[in-house]
Q: What sequence folds into this?
């Protein structure tokens, strides 16, 4: 008995494909039968695959993408990698003024990120504290 998969049949219901078919993951599917492995809704546009399962973009992101270190939301589009953590660009902010750090550029003082202006202010503040402590 031949146990190979008949690729002319729908990958979900294993019935013959009629006049409309979707091709994905090296199989044919009835359009409503190609569904997300997580939410089970039909995938009509872009999908991502992992471990031989198809996922809609949102479910794939929830399952596999890192979370933002600032807001803890799932990262879907653009992100920064800084201080060994992932961030939305809007969430990676200066430790002093809380403004987003342009292009993810930052300066460390006491292991905290600062923009250029706040960095100098923080260093001067630290120096003043040290000088007062030495007197």
A:
């Amino acid at each position: 008995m031949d146990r190979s998969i008949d690729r002319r049949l729908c990958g979900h219901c294993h019935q013959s494909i009629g006049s409309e078919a979707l091709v994905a993951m090296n199989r044919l599917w009835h359009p409503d039968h190609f569904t997300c492995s997580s939410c089970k809704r039909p995938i009509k546009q872009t999908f991502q695959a992992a471990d031989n399962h198809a996922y809609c973009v949102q479910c794939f992101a929830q399952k596999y993408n890192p979370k933002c270190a600032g807001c803890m939301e799932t990262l879907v589009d653009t992100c920064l990698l800084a201080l060994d953590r992932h961030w939305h660009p809007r969430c990676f902010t200066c430790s002093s003024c809380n403004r987003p750090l342009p292009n993810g550029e930052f300066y460390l003082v006491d292991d905290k990120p600062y923009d250029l202006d706040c960095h100098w202010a923080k260093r001067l503040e630290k120096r003043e504290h040290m000088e007062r402590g030495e007197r």
